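User: Good morning. I'm curious how thymidine-5'-diphosphate would be positioned relative to this chain. Could you predict the structure with it bound?
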Amino acid sequence: MAKSRSVFCCTECGTQQPRWLGRCPGCGAWDTLIEEPAVGEAPTTSLMMPAPDGTSGKAIPLADVDTDGAPRFPTGIAELDRVLGGGLVPGSVVLIGGEPGIGKSTLSLQLAAQIEQKAGRVLYVTGEESLEQVRLRAERLGEIPRSLMVLSETRVEALAGPWREHSPAVVVIDSIQTSRTERIESAAGSVSQVRECAALLSATAKNHGTALVLVGHVTKEGTLAGPRVLEHLVDVVLNFEGDRSTPFRLLRASKNRFGSTQEVGIFTMGEKGLSAVENPSELFLAERRPGSPGSCIVPVMEGTRPVLLEVQALVAPAGYGTARRTCVGIDDSRVALLLAVLDRHSEVDLLSSDVYVNVVGGVRVTEPAADLAVALAIASSRLDKALPTDVAACGEVGLGGEVRRVGRLDQRLREAGRLGFERVLVPSGVLAGAAQVDGAIGVEDIGQAVRWLFDHCVK
Ligand code: TYD
Ligand code: MG
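Assistant: Good morning! Here's the predicted structure, ligand included:
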């Protein structure tokens, strides 16, 4: 009898190694390799044998490929459709990833309800919660159709029967980490189980033209396989983000074979589940206290939509030892860079100060276009001078202190104007060609921006 071998799988990227290593050679992550029984590279077949449709194994000219053959059905949740690129594609696999408690089950149940009402049969498979819990959640959400088929099951082989019986248009699996297949011995949630289950389910979905929605947890511990292991197996990867202490939730696509990855869906989690946010800027600015130092508004682009966010900074004298720098919602190293630039190229002295930066609403800003606003918020707190209440700022800040151009300035200015921010500090470069841009005030460098703040601050 052959000796049973084991391999070491990376929980981040799925790379396999014959022996344990401290660092994964595939993705460079530390301490992510875990031991698993080796599985043969047997080709994955579907749970059910494919119906012979005569098309497989036959090449056809490109011109004969039917392009209307990819009909989508809208999910009925506008923000989700926006991110998906119009709706779910039959036979495709969508992975919804996010931290536990962020709202993945809520979103998938709402999606199941909408589709059941409008487009067709849905099979909702739960491996995490009992059927009673699903029912209670459904009642909380309201308007969940009674015909929605639910199944409490973790063995993927057991899905074949209900799948064939109901021929659903959509199957939701909550979650892929609790699914397991008999083909592999390792525990549910291990890299090989997750990968094999996903492969089996997606092959079945492709055979039947069913849209498959997989829910996956993102965890930092090595015990559960991260959805990154699945990224190459699925057609669409959606990430559900947000701070659990705030109601805002952002849904972004990090991969989409059927649409752009530029769009972002914005939701709030309320008493009755997730609802779309029509007017994100208003929501993010709702609790703002105008006229207080250390705050600056920035129009950032969330996908193709401009959204106004408030950046807050607090500069305090450093206590004992090294100064502290704490950032929430923005990259630490970006703020460190801006502090160095402010220190060098403006009159703001920050060397011996603690600096705290926060983006309001639990959102994460990754755009360099927020640089100028962050720098101004910090300067405003340090100098104890508040920006005028109708002023916003956007622009990237370079190491030489220069304020650099950003894209889609007209959209940003329009959104700012709509919410009463009549004046926006922008890179002077963008104004060079234009005769006049309403409300835009050009600044060349960070020193000039800080001087502007000094001259125009609220007394
Ligand atoms: P859930 O969908 O269970 O998260 P996940 O599947 O990603 O783990 O959502 C859990 C949180 O959402 C929980 O803290 C309760 C909250 N919630 C609401 O605020 N309103 C609601 O209507 C529902 C159903 C949940
Ligand atoms: Mg859940």
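Residues 1-38 form one domain. Residues 191-208 form the longest helix (18 residues).
Let me know if you'd like a different ligand tried.
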